[in-house]
Model the fold of this input.
Amino acid sequence: PLKKENVNLVDIVSSSLKLISSDAQSLAVKTSLDSSPDLPAVSADRDRINQVLLNLYLNGLQAMEETRGEKFLKVSVHHGAAPGFIDIEVQDNGKGIPEEDLDRILDPYFTSKPDGTGLGLAMAYKIIDEHMGSIRFQSKSGQGTIVTVSLPV
Done:
């Protein structure tokens, strides 16, 4: 069961980015965090949201392993597109997700990685769904991916 409490999503995002900072540095990936001021607290399970974010960051870092030139992982936290929601966007400029795979990436056991289990994004979806939120993907092969997690205030 979720252990919900009122949390500041910017604090969670900031802490989770610190956890992957050495991985990002070793891959020469610049990380950044942008946030709207005065965001309200969200009732969420801090550990589960952290788990989702770490999965998204690590997927982004892995997608950039072969990227040439500047590599970035940009995270933003802002008022959501839908009223009453806060959006967390995680953007990378990695290899992207092939269009034919976009509809399957949340399926348990679907993976494009040789050593992947296919459970990371399926678990992320389940966690966000349990929070009454949503997770959306925009991606183009060779151009990177934007993942938007929307959580209700």
User: Anything to note?
Assistant: The CA atoms of residues 97 and 108 lie 16 Å apart. The chain has a mean pLDDT of 90.
